[in-house]
Amino acid sequence: MQLRKVLLGLVTLTSVVSSAAVARRDEGGGKLERALSLEARDEPEDTKYFREDSELTGHYDARFFSEVVDYDTRLDTLKHMVRAWLLAAAREGIETWIAHGTLLGWWWNGQILPWDGDLDVQMSADTLTMIGDKYNMTRHKYVSEDGLVEREYILDVNPWIWQRVRGDGMNVIDARWVDVRNGLYIDITGIAETQPDSMPSILNCKNYHRYHVNDIWPLRDTTFEGVPAKIPYSFDEILITEYRSKALVVTEYEGHRWNTKNKTWDLASDVPAGAEAEQLNNRVREPERYYSVESGGFFYNIFRLLHWW
After folding, report:
1. At how many degrees (to 10) do helices 100-109 and 235-243 cross?
2. Strand, helix or coil at 60?
3. Is residue 125 domain-resident?
4. Which of 88, 153, 237, 300 is deepest in the core (most CB within 10 A)?
5. Same domain, 209 and 279
6. How far apart are CA 265 and CA 269, in angstroms?
């Protein structure tokens, strides 16, 4: 009888210890709660296709990343990369135009902004589908005009291009043109009419940028980094909407100062970079509205002058 009581006590003690092992004390009221659910929890599906270099910079494709390149190497990589993309697109009949910060760089002097970590181009959703069908995962050789630079790029199209709304936000970039040497890339995004009934003729990408169809087409011919390129028809309104008019007149930003004589952004050690740059009492210049773009004719220029002045 005594042995039976002892065994029963051991079983009870074991049960209490086991319960305590899977319980925690609530800091608010002292109640014991299960720390682990007895049912398996469904983790959210990781849908992200393109992977960057963790949180180091976010501007390198993880597949080709080995180390962060220096300032001059980055600029050289981006310059030849955008030349290669524009030349390849023209050769293959791919309608594309420069966008976002790359378009802002064009506005200033027809070159990339030297503090940019990557570049941006856009295309229609139909063109995006076409390159997905015809060019996905193709590699492209590039030789500079002087024959001194040889590079190779891969055109990678996100399998989520069928989704023309933001979704979970993991696949807002539709495709990339990647330098296989170091992983630097051009972001490619498509725009489409996603609400034809309530917002006809309004196009948007998956990152909340919206345009009227007449803001984009007809595209304008210009040059960028020394090669033929295309820009949206209403490039000025697009830039002001995205960056505000300040971006068209600020002459000190991200450790650089605008050189009025040479029309270049030069490194300046006395110009803060990062958030501090926004707090400067920046000098402004007179906007040189048309760096290298088709004029559109006499009446078009009169309209632009009235619009701006």
Report:
1. 120
2. coil
3. yes
4. 153
5. no
6. 13
